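ASSEMBLY PREDICTION REQUEST
Request ID: AP-0331
Submitted by: J.K., bench scientist
Number of chains: two
Total residues: 759
Priority: normal
Notes: Please return the full assembly, not individual chains.
Input sequences:
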Amino acid sequence: MHSTRRRMLLATTAAATLALGACGGGSDENGGGDGEAGDGGGDITLSVATFNEFGYEDLLTEYEEQNPGVTVEHIKADTADNARAALRNSLGADSGAADVEAIEVDWVTEFQQYPDKFVDLSSEEVEGRWLDWKTEAVTLEDGMLLGYGTDIGPEAVCYRADLFEQAGMPTDREEVAELLEGDWDTYFEVGQQFVDETGIPWYDSAGALWQGMINQVEQPYETPEGEIIALDNPEVRELYDQVLAASVDDGLSAGLGQWSADWASAFQGEEFATMLCPAWMMGVIEGNAEGVEGWDVANVFPGGGGNWGGSYLTVPAQGDHVEEATKLAAWLTAPEQQIKAFEAKGTFPSQQGALDSDTLAESSNAFFNDAPTGQIFAERAEAVTVTPFKGPRYFEINTAMADAITRVDVDKTDDPDSSWDKFAAAVEELR
Amino acid sequence: MTVTTPTPAPAPAPAPAPVADRPGRRGGGTGRWGRWDHRVSPYLYIAPFFLLFFVTGLFPLVYTGWVAVHDWDQIMGQGEFVGAENFVSVLTSDDFWRALVNTVSIFVLSSVPQVLAALAIAGLLDHHLRAATFWRMGVLLPYVVAPVAVALIFSNLFADRFGLINALLDTVGMEPVRWHSDRLASHVAIATMVNFRWTGYNALILLAAMQAIPRDLYEAAAIDGASSLRRFVSITVPLLRPTMIFVIITSTIGGLQIFDEPKMYDQFGRGGADGQWQTLTLYLYELGWTRADFGRASAVAVLLFLLIVVIGVVNFVISRRIASEESR
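STATUS: Completed
Returned structure:
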């Protein structure tokens, strides 16, 4: 009798665990309600889906106060990838999307393939609100505006002043900017001097440099006519050879894959001296390099300007309150509101009006030696001149390219030529 | 086991007794209704499961086959009928075969040690221990930990440059292992995560079966002078046969569908820059959700299903043969 009871207990435990395990997966894909009509006449509920930190919490409360009868529900995804998957599912099923959906600049091209699923947001009211290149990226050929710009990621160079000093190089951010002023060759030449002097790699990862380089090419992988030119475009191959020669042959790269555990740990040591640095990267550096002194940021970027990341607000056409949702999206992305979001979570504004504001100009960052980051990144944003054409296959081709670079720079399983062949095979498969 | 039958079992009748001739077994229902009730109601009782299975299991299964023979975009939905084109393009792609090799390699590296270790742990837990429940719950702990948390811990252990394991190897003067760049090393690392999670779970299932083995068998063997190892090999293992088959088949299915661990093994979740640890499910995910090509993703799903069936059958046959030989 005793042993039967024990056995039953065991079975129950096993069953309970199974049930627990089953609860663990799934169930977080729901994009959110479709904004059903509230209880009172004319009362509506709008839902806004964002990811990571947009800094919208207080703004949404403010909007509710200004607009009686409107309730705003905020759905926050933990990562951008989850938000993308949820939105894709909702679009495929034609239901479940929030009234206002945030999208990342990297997925803009893929969602441009489905203009019918979104509301055209173009209007006179918002014309000229954003930096030109920010708007261009979401404007379709027929003039449809897919999304309202929120933040951007203008790139500067972050550096370790203490390591620069070791190498006998200038440490002041103005002088460093002057030293690095020029094209990628200049950046590599200075890096070579640094490495010869200290033996410490110049930058963290060749893949990160590639992001900076390829975003300065007008038509990197595809033509607007829909032809894939990644393999025939001499510029792509030249940049590829250039970045790998500098990274591996000259040993300028620390060979760390960005976002890997090794990469995050490396901030605690003296593993590299500079990083290409979009505005939002400052928070990442500060988090990983906690306790390390010497980080600073220079108002310069190899080859001119560069942008990495940033988001938009879109209005899916499936919603019940499309007009109200458009109004909310327009309000959230107005310069006044974006400044508040920037103050809350550091999302760097893409709006011309916000970039010129005093609040932005006066903001500084204590971790980066009190650098006037607002002013520096506003200038870096102005320096962005090229809007690369990113076709529907951009994401996949660039991923294949990032893999190719990682194989040589991080994994060291291939040389540049054999890795290129694998990249070529991956691209051929997409044609 | 049959339900209690008060009527004496009919002696082996020379003539085949027609089913309808059997007397009503229950006092309440007699005649036609009773017979109908008796014959149909067991099926009605298990029907909810099968209804649920049809809706949530069989329908998606068949529908996946339907999607696999079409051009199917994730967002735009069904396109043209393309026949076997998706299958051909998957089967001629190097990525598929590489993913297949990775999957099988990780499966072998995880399932085999896992079942053996589970058997050993269950054998130990079967002894009279103080605070038995504590130890039994203890082996289940890794299973309760969320896979994401496991991946976080292990990614720090298996980091190429600043990982704990490589640091330890370094202190004893050994070369660091390139856990992410090297294909086999990455498989070992992922198999370790899988084993960490599932060994205790399988051990508990085997333990439950062990406790059902009559104790007098052991006592008799002990009196005959069999050592405890001998008792384990000659009594425990053969009598665990049905449970072993269950454990092996579930771990086969789980092993071939492995997703969480390789997905979270690096920061990108695509199975490495050279696909070193891209498993079939990761490949399926990439086709379906990165390239939005549900047609080809479904083709991979169908192939994976067939593979699991084949390996499952082989497994079943082998483990049955082994177990029946041992019991002889």
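REVIEWER COMMENTS: The first helix of chain B runs from residue 31 to 68.
SIGN-OFF: pending second reviewer
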